[in-house]
Amino acid sequence: MYSCPSNSKVWSHLPPPIFIKDHCFPSKYIMATSRFFMPPSASTWNKSKVSLQRVNITSNAIQKTVRFSVINCSLKINLHAQPALNVAGRLVKGGLVFQQDVSVRSFEIDSEYKMSTKAIMNYLQEASLNYAKKLGLTIDTCFGITPGMRKMDLVWVFRGKHIEVDRYPCWGEVVQILHWTCASGRTGVRFDWTINDINTGETLVRASCLAVMMNKNTRKTCKLPEEVKDEIKAYLRVDVEPIVEVFRYSCPQIDAMDHIKTGLTPGWNDLDVNYHVNNAKYLDWILESTPDSIRDRHELWKIN
């Protein structure tokens, strides 16, 4: 049965819960209910932070999974009055940096009123696409696709994304996203982001990743073509260190994992405009398989 915390308030005269059979586990049922309760006060939330790290396992077919490490911290929530927002975004520093304001909305938060990790990842991607649009590099309805990329059937693919969260923005809070790009060798471009408190300037989230070219037809990555380099080189910063320190190390080998979630099948709603599962959805799957004992006591701090 579904129980409410002792300090919660339950609204009466609501429909009874509905039990739905779980097709993966016929002997179990999922409960869907329209009963609501107020969560515990914010002062009771005190979680330590965990880091999400890719590892290799040797004894089963799944090659990528996660390990958690714990760092002590306390959750702080500050709700601010909402200033006028620059929601469309604008170019600053001569077009080398994109700036966009965001108000944390109710459907982007978790049960503790904090912006979800999925929402953070989606906003990072949205900033990249809006930056390309502001620069006039995006054509038609192709997200982030330059004329040269379209001619060669190329799309951007993120790999090696690193994210660090010092504090999750809360519902009603206004944050400012800064985004810029840098040259990264001969094969790709590095994307950097920060999410900052618009009132104090405090950096809440830092992220960095490598973006490479992929052919839509062969689904294989390739070197950055000279034509595409010429299209974007005026907007690439040089000699700028990654906003997140990237540690290059081999994934540790693990014989077996304690918690594995199987039977995940991408659905129609999981696909993006390139008809592949978005990176934010993969993170959802990973976190969904995380044990309750970790989710209840810790919050995600770093993704490598």
From TrEMBL:
Q: Which InterPro entries match?
A: Acyl-ACP_TE_C (IPR049427), Acyl-ACP_thioesterase_NHD (IPR002864), FATA/B (IPR045023), HotDog_dom_sf (IPR029069)
Report the EC code(s) recorded for this entry: 3.1.2.-
- Major place of residence: plastid
- Residues of the Acyl-ACP thioesterase-like C-terminal domain: 260-304
Which key words are in the record? Chloroplast, Fatty acid biosynthesis, Fatty acid metabolism, Hydrolase, Lipid biosynthesis, Lipid metabolism, Plastid, Transit peptide
Every copy of the Acyl-ACP thioesterase N-terminal hotdog domain together lies at 95-231
Molecular function via GO: hydrolase activity
Please give the Pfam families that the UniProt record associates with this protein: Acyl-ACP_TE (PF01643), Acyl-ACP_TE_C (PF20791)
> Which EC class does it fall in?
hydrolase
Provide the leader sequence positions. none
- Cellular compartments annotated: Plastid, Chloroplast
Q: Which family does it belong to?
A: Belongs to the acyl-ACP thioesterase family.
- Chain's role: Plays an essential role in chain termination during de novo fatty acid synthesis.
Name of the protein in question = Acyl-[acyl-carrier-protein] hydrolase
* Organism listed in the record: Gossypium hirsutum
Q: Which gene encodes it?
A: LOC121229350
